[in-house]
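Box 3.1 A note on notation
Throughout this textbook, protein chains are presented in two layers. The first layer is the amino acid sequence; the second is a token string describing backbone geometry. Keep the layers aligned when reading.
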Amino acid sequence: MISRLNLYDANGNKINMESIGLFGLKLNIPSPSYTTLTEKLDNGRTIVLDKQLNPRQLVAEFITKANDYKDSLKLRDELFELLGHGSEMYIGEVNVPGKWWRVELEDWDPERINRRVSKIELPLFCTSGLAESINLNKKKYSSTSFNFKNGGNQLIDMTKQAETEITFMGSSTDLTITNKTTGDVFKYNGNTTDLEIIKLKGVHAFKGSSSIFGQTNKRLLSFAVGNNEFTVSGASGEFELTISTRFYFL
């Protein structure tokens, strides 16, 4: 039997499920749901302020195959050791390569079908409600205008996607990075020398290891779906700007 699912540990390392007789059948993914934030106006009208994607409860179906009853008990204990650590893990479908879900495992019990085969349904909680690209996508630029393509189908928001990182290395005064597609502008009210690095990661801004958030305009950059047109001003001489992010999918 060939597994239809891939499991990865908290560090993104693929787990060799077949070596212990574990085979993925399917991943049940519910449709997205939202919490709507509203405000009631003085005239009685209600307006929608925002819609927030809710976490999603996935269910992964597996079967285990053992040689005999004694072996099935040994396999059960191996599964508890493998899956019962309480850490985040990742799961993806073999037929949907390049994407996975960051999940946490909730309580589960194997259901023995016979002395050799057990069925397992793993309830998995995805806090973000989104699938991610397995690989971090990294692009480097050295010109004052460039395009970056968000290959997912969701906005990349640095307030939510903490892995997204932008670095600038080079000499600058009042460095300004503008995403003309979204209208977002980041500005650092200071200077950098040739080898100094400014790093924007999540909601943080650093020069070297020191926070410079208080010396910025306190704005964060986001990436629309598809092409994003960027400009860089304030750089003097050669520089390197790097964008590193995952892509996100509903």
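The mean pLDDT is 90. The first helix runs from residue 69 to 83.
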